[in-house]
């Protein structure tokens, strides 16, 4: 594959089974759709079914002890940094209550700023989450607000 594509021999290739993609993998794609996903503030397209969710414990304290785990998950650090989340409402950024962090709706767009320290200096990762059913206006506003947020931090944020 690497030779056929003309990539350098140092290129990493990772095999992921269909349907077993991790959240870290899915975040690399702008438009990832899931079966039975919700739209807006929780409108579900299936009825009469209860999701069976397998709880998998992920111990972030192991990221320092096992750097290969951090590398595998594409983590920039041990996840001890600060998180701020904004939802795009009326084309403007509105802070999200930390109690609802991790809840994203298919009809909305979000900006997530992760700040961490490396060598005593802050670094930033700015995630843009665009819901599958978000309007073109919201997606555009999300991108424009991401640019403004990046400028606020000296154009040093890595945008994902």
TrEMBL record:
Keyword Aminoacyl-tRNA synthetase carried by entry: no
GO cellular component terms, A-Z: actin cytoskeleton; cytoplasm
Keywords annotated in UniProt: Actin-binding
Any single biological process term in GO: actin polymerization or depolymerization
GO terms of molecular function: actin filament binding; phosphatidylinositol-4,5-bisphosphate binding
UniProt xrefs under Pfam families: Gelsolin
PANTHER family recorded: VILLIN, VILLIN-LIKE PROTEIN
Protein name, UniProt field: AVIL protein
Organism: Piaya cayana (Common squirrel cuckoo)
């Amino acid at each position: 594959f690497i030779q056929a594509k003309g990539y350098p021999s140092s290129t990493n290739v990772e095999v992921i089974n269909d349907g077993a993609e991790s959240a870290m993998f899915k975040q690399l794609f702008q438009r990832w759709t899931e079966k039975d996903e919700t739209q807006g503030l929780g409108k579900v397209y299936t009825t009469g079914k209860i999701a069976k969710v397998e709880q998998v414990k992920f111990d972030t304290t192991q990221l320092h002890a096992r750097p290969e785990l951090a590398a595998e998950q594409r983590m920039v650090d041990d996840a001890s940094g600060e998180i701020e989340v904004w939802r795009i409402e009326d084309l403007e950024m509105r802070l999200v209550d930390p109690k609802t962090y991790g809840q994203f709706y298919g009809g909305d767009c979000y900006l997530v700023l992760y700040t961490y320290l490396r060598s005593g200096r802050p670094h930033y990762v700015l995630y843009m989450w665009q819901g599958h059913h978000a309007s073109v206006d919201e997606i555009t506003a999300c991108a424009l607000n991401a640019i403004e947020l990046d400028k606020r931090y000296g154009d040093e944020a890595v945008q994902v």
